[in-house]
Amino acid sequence: MLVLGVETSCDETGAAVVEDGRKIRSNVLLSQVEKHARFGGVVPELAARSHLEGILYVTDSALREAGASPKEIGLVAATCGPGLIGGLLVGLSFAKALALGAGKPFFGVNHLEAHIYANFLAHPEITTPLLCLTVSGGHTDLVYMEDHGKYQILGRTRDDAAGEAFDKVARVLGLGYPGGPYLEKAAQQGKPGTPLVRTDSLARTYDFSFSGLKTALINRVHHYRQKNEELPVADLAATFQQQVVTILLERTFRAVDNLGIKTVLLSGGVAANGELREGFAREAAARKIRFFCPPLELCTDNAAMVAACGYFRFRDGGSSPLDLPAFPRLSWKLKA
Amino acid sequence: MRVLGIDTSLPTGTVGLIDGVHILYEGRIPIRPGGGERIPALIDKALQVVGWRPEYLDLVAVGRGPGSYTGVRVGLAIGKGIAYSLGIPMVGVNTLLALAANNPGWPGLLCPVLDARRGRVYTGLYLRKEQGNWVELRPPELCLLAELTAELKKEKTPVLFVGQGARLYREEITAALGPAAVFHGKEEGEIDQVSGVTVAFLGLLRWQKKNEDELFTCLPLYLQRTEAEIRWGKGE
Ligand SMILES: [Zn+2]
C-alpha cells in the first residue's frame, strides 16, 4: 500500500510517498531555514504562511516523483502534533481534504512517534522493544517503545530543546543559524574545559534542562566582553557541546542500563552532531547492544517518517476521523 | 456546475453546495478559537446529505480573507487539498465581498468592516449590479477606521455597513457620517457571517468570467506582513 505523508509541524514543509511503511518512493522537503535565519529562530506566523505557500507544490512533486496519482494512494497521513499550531493546521487540513477528495482513509500522526520511524525506514532489521532519543531544535525526548503503538515517554526537556540551546549559544558566540552545524564546526577547533558553574538538578530523573547551562555560558561571554578580552569562541563552543552531549548520553544510557535495553536509536536534527553519534556508538559498543541512527535527511523533520508511522498505526488500529483537531502540545500517546 | 464553497476567515466556518443557481446545502460550525480543521468533516456530511460523491464536484471556491490569518489558511489548505485530489479547479473569493453579497436587497453602496484592532479595520466598498455581479469600488485594505469614514464622507450617499466591525464601531461610524450610515437592525451574528453558498456563487461567477484556475496560486489576503518582518524592517 502507498501512503502519502504530510509534515508541517515546524519549519520544513514535507510530502512523501512510502510503500508498505518501509520503502521510500519519494521524499520532498521545502526548507524554510533561510526565511527564518535573519530572525535567529523560527517565527511561527512566517512558518505558517510558508507552509501554505509550499504545501501543494511539495505534495504534487512527491506524487509525481513516486509516479502515483491521488487515487492510487491507499492512505493519507499527516502530522497532527506536537508542533507550531499554525503550521500543523495547514498540513492537517490539507491532508484531510485531500483524503476526502480521493475517497481514501486519513491518519493523524504523532510527530514524536514519526521520528522513531525514520529509523525503521533506514534500517529494516530494527525490532522492538527499543529506546529512542529524539533530539532537535524542537525536541529532546527519550522514548521507550515496546511495540508499534505502545510507548512510554521517559524524559523530555523542561525548558529549551537541545538544538534550540545550540542555536541560542551559536547566536551569542556570533556563529551562524541554524546554530548546530556552526557550533560543531567551531568546537572542532577548540578545547572543552572552560569552567561553567551549573548544577544538574534533574540528575535523578530522565528529564533534561539546558537553560542553566546556556545561561552559564552566556554569563561567561559577558565576563570576557566586560574585561575586553578576546572571546575564545572555539573553546566555548567545544565546552558547551561537550556538556550537552554528556547530559544526553547520561540520561539515555542510564535508561538503557535500568531497563535492560538491547536496541538504542538516535533521531532528530541534532543526531547529525558527530560528537553525539560517536558517543552513542561508543556507549552502545561498550554494552554490546545495537545502535541505529538514520541518515541525515531522515534525521531532520521529513514526511517519509510520517508516512511510515501512519502505515503501521493505520494497519493496526484503523483511520482517524475527519474532524481530528491539531494537538500543538501532544505528548504521548495519541489515540487512533 | 456543481460548486463547493468554503469560508473559515471569520468566527463561524461555513460550507455550501450549489448546482448552478440551485442551493443544495449550507452548514456552519463555530471555529473560533480553533476548529477550522474540522471543516473536512462538515464537507463530508454535506456531500452525504446531498447524495453526491466527491467526484461530482466541478469547482471549489474558498474565502481568502481578509480575516483570521489562521482561519483563512485552514480554508485555503482544505480547498487546495480537495480540488487537487479531484483534479478540479479552485478559485479564491474575497471574504469582504462575500459579506457584502449577503445583502442582495440593498441597492446602494455596501461597506463590510472587520475589526483589525488598534483602531484599524479591514474594509472595502462594493456596489451590486445586475444578475449578482458586483463592482469593487475599493479593494480590500487595512486602514484606520478614521481614514475609512473620512473617505466615505465624500460619497454623499447612504452606505450600508456590514460585518462584525460595523456593529463594534457603529457609534464612531454614525458620529462621522450621520444619517448616511445605515445599519441592519438584525440580531447579532446574522449580518456578521459569511455564507458558504454565497462563496460558491461568487466563485462560480469568478470562474465563468475569468476561467482561471487559482489552485496553485491562490493565497490569503493578509494585507500586511508578519509582526517579525515589520519589526525587522524598522531595524528593531
Ligand atoms: Zn521533529
What does this structure look like?
The complex is a heterodimer of chains A (336) and B (236). The two termini of chain A are 19 Å apart. Chain A has eleven helices and ten strands. By secondary structure, chain A is an alpha/beta fold. The model of chain B has no long low-confidence stretch (mean pLDDT 93). In chain B, helix 2 (69-86) links the parallel strand 4 (59-63) and strand 5 (90-93). Chain B has helices at residues 39-50, 69-86, 95-100, 145-153, 164-168, 170-177, 196-210, 227-233, and strands at 2-7, 12-19, 22-30, 59-63, 90-93, 109-115, 120-128, 134-144, 159-162, 181-183. Chain B is α/β, with parallel strands linked by helices. Chain B has two domains: 2-95 and 194-233, ATPase, nucleotide binding domain (Nucleotidyltransferase, domain 5), CATH 3.30.420; 103-191, Nucleotidyltransferase, domain 5 (2-Layer Sandwich). The interface between A and B is large, with 39 and 37 residues. Zinc ion binds at residues 111, 115, 136, 138-139, 268, 301 of chain A.
Give the cofactors and ligands: zinc ion
CATH C-level label of the largest domain in chain B: Alpha Beta
Question: How many strands in all of chain B?
Answer: 10
Helix content of chain A: 40-55%
Characterize the overall form of chain B: globular
What portion of residues of chain B is helical? 25-40%
Number of H- or I-type helical stretches of chain A: 11
Envelope shape of chain A: globular
Radius of gyration of chain B: 18 Å
- Give the oligomeric state: heterodimer
Looking at the structure, the CATH topology of the largest domain in chain B is Nucleotidyltransferase, domain 5
CATH architecture of the largest domain in chain B, by name, is: 2-Layer Sandwich
Count of discrete domains of chain B? 2
CATH superfamily heading of the largest domain in chain A: ATPase, nucleotide binding domain
- Overall pLDDT confidence of chain A: 93
Largest sheet features of chain A: 5 strands, mixed
At CATH level 2, the architecture of the largest domain in chain A is 2-Layer Sandwich
Which strand order does the major sheet of chain A show?
3-2-1-4-5
Rg of chain A, Cα atoms, Å: 20 Å
